[in-house]
Amino acid sequence: MTKEVWRFIDSGNGSPAFNMALDEALLDWHSEGKIPPVIRFYGWNPATLSVGYFQKVEKEIDMEAVRHHRLGFVRRPTGGRGVLHEHELTYSVIVSEEHPDMPKTVTEAYRVISEGILKGFHYLGLDAYFAVPKTAAERDSLKNPRSAVCFDAPSWYELVVEGRKVAGSAQTRQKGVILQHGSILLDLDEDKLFSLFKYPNDRVKERMQKAFKSKAVAINEISSRTISLTEAKDAFRKGFADGLNIDLEPYELSAGELEYVTKIAKDRYESNEWNFKR
């Protein structure tokens, strides 16, 4: 039986605004029937702090520290919390809500899409698995996360290795299309990450950073060998193809498509109104 063909885009390192604009553009084009579903890989130049759509920047983010580290800054169209995009592979998946293999609920669709990431970890020789919050307290903490840091909070169908979170993802549904994007950490500078958020006092910051070590981990901290970005891309590309039972066809954006993306980047994701609106 022939497999469904999705597009595969490796857009390389982009600016924070371009990265979010391209995800939005792909969602638009897929909603209009112009393109099939898409898997996209990308990186960030400069390294960037992205915040979730609902986060309050003034209350939660230390913008002075963001500037000190010369990081980019952008608000995502998806929910979730702050992510430092530095030593990682970032992915996005764009697929119709009506796709026959996509469950109707956010949680279940997240599990189906994340099957591709799970397989990618297996290709890298890591024993990753889905962890589901079991207790009422864990489930409640999904609704009211205490931390502004993405990898610090539990979520449904968490991807974990040795009990620690190895990938963080967020999802939005607009125009009948699911956009899920996320970070697969290769390495992590914890001190830099924790310097970017506001805390009631230093004691709370120390306690949260200490607790964080037991909750999240980067691939190269637990792998028996150093995994390069190229190797990670190969593994996760194969993982998505296997996990979603699809064939991936490489795609390059046309000049007209790039122009459309650049306009969204300028109008929305480069604007202070969007990035600092809450």
From TrEMBL:
Single annotated GO MF: lipoyl(octanoyl) transferase activity
Pathway(s) the chain acts in: Protein modification; protein lipoylation via endogenous pathway; protein N(6)-(lipoyl)lysine from octanoyl-[acyl-carrier-protein]
Site (Lowers pKa of active site Cys): 165
Single GO biological process annotation from the record: lipoate biosynthetic process
One matching Pfam family: LplA-B_cat
Swiss-Prot/TrEMBL catalytic activity: octanoyl-[ACP] + L-lysyl-[protein] = N(6)-octanoyl-L-lysyl-[protein] + holo-[ACP] + H(+)
Entry EC number(s): 2.3.1.181
Other remarks in the entry: In the reaction, the free carboxyl group of octanoic acid is attached via an amide linkage to the epsilon-amino group of a specific lysine residue of lipoyl domains of lipoate-dependent enzymes. The reaction proceeds via an octanoyl-thioester enzyme intermediate.
The protein's name in its UniProt record: Octanoyltransferase LipM
